[in-house]
Amino acid sequence: MKQLTPFLALALMVSVPAWADMSIDVSPVRTHVTLHAGDEYTNSVRVQNSGLEPIRLRSYLQDWTMDEAGTPIFKQAGTEKRTASLWIEAAPSDFLLEPGETKFVRFTAKVPEGTQDGGYYGSLILESLPLDRAVQGSMHMFVQGRVATMVYLTVGAPKRAAQITSLMPIKKGDKRYVRLTVMNTGEDVVRLNGDVSVVAGGNAKGNPIELPDVPVLPGLKRYVDLDLAAAWNVHDIARVRVDLDGIGQLVGECPLDPEKAQLVP
Asked: Buried b vs exposed e over 98-119: b needs ≥16 C-beta within 10 Å?
């Protein structure tokens, strides 16, 4: 199953079953390590077939980015400015997993000499293939499934900075949220940490709601929609606190007038 290790933070990003009886457990599914130009780093991904049928998988590297909603967008290796995919080799590249069997995909990242300080990232993809190699590339129907292990490499000691660019009440159907938008203005990935509260007359209404632990990539914006649960009235405000490790704290407030909530899809 997906588990934490002492120094790697893990979070499932993509998991799609290839067919009804396909089920795999992968750990870690996110690796973040600090290196220097010229360094080499090796780790492995544990893959277990927890389904009832044998599965054939291939491993390969891709670039990725994300849209403002946080949806991962996968691209060919070497496409993105901050790609780490071309620095990483993985093996085995094609293997079979019997039901209940566990194997390890080993990957090694080699940071090129002269690499500028900054945050770089790629993804190790595990993708299902037809069990019969003779079927591959034929007209037989086959639905692929993919799991992505995200690899973040912080090289050196890059500038880390972010700012709140928007905090506003929104409405989706009959439900109201507060939309927090954060812009990463630094050179390394940052992750959201902190909380948001509804405040009336200087006092919090109910318990603070924790922010989701999600990444914001360098040079990009992303938003999160926060369900505050507490009922709003025209005099309430939302107060958000974002803690950024090694940077400091961002604080923002916005009025919660229910009549002024912006309608969004």
From this structure: eeeeebebebebebeeebeebb
Identify the CATH number of the domain defined by range 14-155.
Answer: 2.60.40.10
Taking the alpha carbons of 245, 246, 249, 250 in that order, is the dihedral positive or negative? Answer: negative
What pTM, to 2 d.p., does this model score? 0.84
CATH fold for domain 162-263: Immunoglobulin-like (2.60.40)
pLDDT, residue 197, reads 92
| Domain regions of the chain by residue span | 14-155, 162-263
More confident: 226 or 260: 226
Distance set, CA 130 to CA 42, 44, 138, 149, 256 (Å):
29, 24, 10, 21, 53
Fold match, 14-155 / 162-263: yes
User: How is residue 85 annotated by DSSP?
Assistant: G
Residues forming beta bridges with residue 57, ordered by sequence position = 95, 128
Tell me the pLDDT band of 10, cut-offs 50, 70 and 90. very low
